[in-house]
Design a protein that fits this description.
Helices cover 18% and strands 33% of the residues. It contains nine helices and 35 strands.
Length: 452
């Protein structure tokens, strides 16, 4: 049977107290819905339909390239009503798997199992919740068969004591599902058409309701509030930290690292406290990252060290480099081996050759810097003239004295030596000393004011 997946993402997420649609709140750096969509793709369904509603344009806009069909639920009348908006798109002979956009960490294997056990009937996913408050409870009959699901707000005190909860996912043939949904009413505490009511309807028809019980709670935890979001985030981060420790990475404190994307580490990498890794980050062997660093889409080659409070973004760092403390590498910074970038140095869209150094207080933007270049404190590439950006070229073995301004476009030829405080706006000849500043004068006849 072909498989179609319906993802419910139309809820406003009242309990988040936010103007951002719930499924767009980030978990480990990506919207909740992104986690769900990635998992659905692993099941290779015929179609993925996402039901959006409140703030729907923002939700759609956040996934411009997602291979999904969008359906609008203009009125938020409940999860059952939401599924009804999507069902007309499903082919009659398909199995439909319904997922919630606010249950982000479910694994593809669990969903596969759910689809398998449905076998033409109805399958639901359940779990024993550490704290079942807020969830629909699974009510079983005397023989242990699933009889119905009762929502928190409609449950009796006896039912509230049940710990087995509805994760929110179910699988059934499209035809049967729309039949059951047609019979779902909204006479309940929330005046909503509950998807969960199909369970009692199926059971009443004598259809066996297969329940797959998830063993791992975080996998099936829903996000309804910032508190739950934060708890899930910590759980995810703790897992990421454990994976790193197991792979041999030294973490000064596994509770104080955040990985919002992928972090690949070579052997004997050490990471100090409060570092954030975003996008795709690769650290080579023996790389050391000091405390309070942020690395976003960066690769750092073997034996390099990034010192405290550095921010590196869309950059490449070669082997045996020394970055920071307080360094900033912006997009397009490409450093060869043994480059030193020191405190309060900013590098943007520039290449620096092997062994070059800018140790203090400099801006290097849109520049091509050769090897073994020394860039003195306070050096600035004036790359922007108010209209366009221009390039600075500094060839191998140059020495740029402190407080030099390089007015681009300009080329400093191989082996140039620039005197401190120079403003260089013409190309310099190779191997010569160039000084471009007013000559120092002293006036022997000068007397301090007030003195005769
Ligand atoms: C739902 C289940 C509950 C289950 C819990 C698991 C129902 C009635 N209740 O409760 O049994 O234990 O999930 O996390 O299904 N949505 C729409 N349109 C709507 C309403 C909701 O698209 O009209 C979407 C939401 O965006 C969300 C999902 O459906 O992604 C679930 O809705 P939510 O309001 O969060 O339901 P819960 O109260 O968590
Ligand atoms: Ca929910």
């Amino acid at each position: 049977m072909p498989l179609e997946i319906v993802v419910l993402a139309a809820g406003q997420g009242k309990r988040m107290h936010s103007d951002v649609p719930k499924v767009l709140h980030p978990l480990a750096g990506r919207p909740l819905l992104a986690h769900v969509l990635e998992t659905t793709r692993a099941l290779a369904p015929e179609r993925i339909v996402v039901v959006h509603g409140h703030g729907g344009d923002a939700v759609k806009a956040a996934f411009p390239a997602a291979p999904v069909t969008w359906v609008e639920q203009s009125e938020r009348l409940g999860t059952g009503h939401a599924v009804l908006q999507a069902l007309p798109l499903a082919s009659e002979n398909a199995d439909v798997l319904v997922l919630y956009g606010d249950v982000p960490l479910v694994r593809a294997e669990t969903l596969r199992e759910l689809v398998q056990v449905a076998r033409g009937g109805l399958a639901i996913l359940t779990a024993d919740a550490p704290d079942p408050v807020g969830y629909g409870r699974i009510v079983r009959d005397a023989r242990g068969r699933v009889a119905r699901i009762v929502e928190q707000k409609d449950a009796s005190s006896e039912e509230l004591a049940l710990r087995e909860v509805n994760v929110g996912f179910l699988c059934a043939p499209a035809k049967r599902l729309s039949g059951w949904l047609a019979g779902v009413g909204n006479r309940n505490a929330q005046r909503e058409y509950y998807l969960t009511d199909v369970v009692a309807l199926a059971a009443a028809e004598g259809v066996e309701v297969a329940a797959v019980k998830a063993a791992d709670w975080p996998e099936v935890a829903g996000v309804n509030s910032k508190r739950e979001l934060a708890a899930l985030e910590r759980m995810l981060q703790r897992r990421a930290a454990e994976r790193l420790l197991e792979a041999g990475v030294t973490l000064a404190d596994p509770e104080r690292i955040d990985v919002r994307g992928s972090l690949e580490c070579g052997r004997d990498v050490a990471i100090d406290v409060n570092c954030v890794f975003e996008g795709s980050v690769r650290l080579g062997e023996r790389v050391r990252i000091g405390p309070h660093c942020v690395l976003r889409n960066v690769s750092v080659a073997a034996d390099s060290e990034v010192h405290a409070f550095s921010l590196l973004e869309d950059a490449q760092v070669g082997a045996r480099c020394r970055i920071g403390p307080y360094a900033r590498l912006r997009p397009g910074a490409m450093l060869a081996e043994e480059v030193h970038i020191g405190n309060f140095v900013e590098v943007k869209a520039s290449r620096l050759g092997a062994g070059s150094k800018a140790n203090h207080l400099a801006y290097i933007g849109d520049a091509q810097v050769g090897s073994r270049v020394n860039i003195g404190a306070g050096t600035i590439t004036c790359n922007y003239d108010g209209a366009g950006k221009h390039r600075t070229v500094i060839e191998d073995d140059c020495f740029i004295g402190s407080d030099t301004t390089l007015v681009a476009p300009v080329t400093v030829a191989k082996g140039s030596y620039i005197g401190a405080g120079s403003t260089i706006n013409k190309n310099t000849p190779a191997g010569q000393l160039t000084v471009a500043r007013a000559r120092q004068v002293s006036l022997p006849s000068w007397k301090p004011r007030g003195k005769k």
